[in-house]
Each structure stands twice: as structure tokens, then as C-alpha cells.
TrEMBL record:
This is Uncharacterized protein. It comes from Acrobeloides nanus. It comes from the Eukaryota.
Length: 130
């Protein structure tokens, strides 16, 4: 990510979640469904008319409340039937089921891959995995 000096300072103060959409998921569920989930993330616990992704719509989400709020947002989406298709079992869970000869009938593709950028560090986070 190429950030200017002001944006880098914001990153040091507040965690940012960046999302790269999964094309396989888009092919199955559609871009409109992805945008619905991304809009829900952008407006989660925000005052009317404000968004978390104001500088990079549907790509980067600033969580001024702290990293814990990313998990709160994830849990909210995971428990709302409107967004259930965005989530998939983790590769480890799918492998465990396969080892037991259990066929998982649900979604196998997460909507995207996520990274959290905070205090200059970047780490992958399992936002779209159950």
C-alpha cells in the first residue's frame, strides 16, 4: 500500500483492515453481494453518513476504536443471516472434516483475504473464516 505521510500517521494510531476480494467467491455470489458486505463493514458502529473506508472505498477500513472492534464487526456479520455467505470454514477445519470422511455442504470460499495494519506492522487476519 502506498500511503502518504498523513495516512501513515493514521495507520500508527488506528488499525486498518485491508481486504482483497476472492475472485472465486465473486464468481459464485456476485460483486453486488460483496459490496453489500463491504458497505456493512464500512458503516458498522459509525455515525449516520460516516464510513470507515472514506479514503479507499471497499478496500481499507479504519477502526479508530481499536483492533478489538474488528472482531466485534466480524462477529456481528457472522451472526447476521444476510452476510453468512461471506464466511467459510478455515482450510484447517475443512481438512479435518475431510480426514473424517465428512462432506461439508456449506461455503468453502471466503469472500476475501484480510490484513490488519497497525503501528507499522501488517498481519493476516482470518476475518472471513468461521
Amino acid at each position: 500500500m502506498n500511503l502518504n505521510a498523513d495516512e501513515e500517521n493514521e495507520t500508527d494510531e488506528s488499525p486498518i483492515m485491508a481486504i482483497r476480494l476472492n475472485q472465486n467467491w465473486i464468481n459464485t455470489f456476485g460483486l453486488a453481494a460483496a459490496n453489500q458486505v463491504l458497505d456493512a463493514i464500512a458503516t458498522f458502529h459509525m455515525p449516520q453518513g460516516q464510513r470507515r473506508d472514506e479514503k479507499a472505498t471497499h478496500l481499507c477500513f479504519r477502526f479508530a476504536e481499536g483492533s478489538h472492534q474488528i472482531n466485534v464487526c466480524r462477529d456481528f456479520l457472522l451472526n447476521d443471516a444476510a452476510y453468512k455467505n461471506a464466511f467459510a470454514l478455515s482450510p484447517t477445519a475443512l481438512a479435518d472434516l475431510a480426514a473424517l470422511n465428512i462432506n461439508y455442504p456449506g461455503n468453502r470460499e471466503p469472500m476475501g483475504l484480510c490484513a490488519e495494519i497497525y503501528h507499522g506492522d501488517t498481519k493476516t487476519i482470518p476475518f472471513f473464516y468461521k
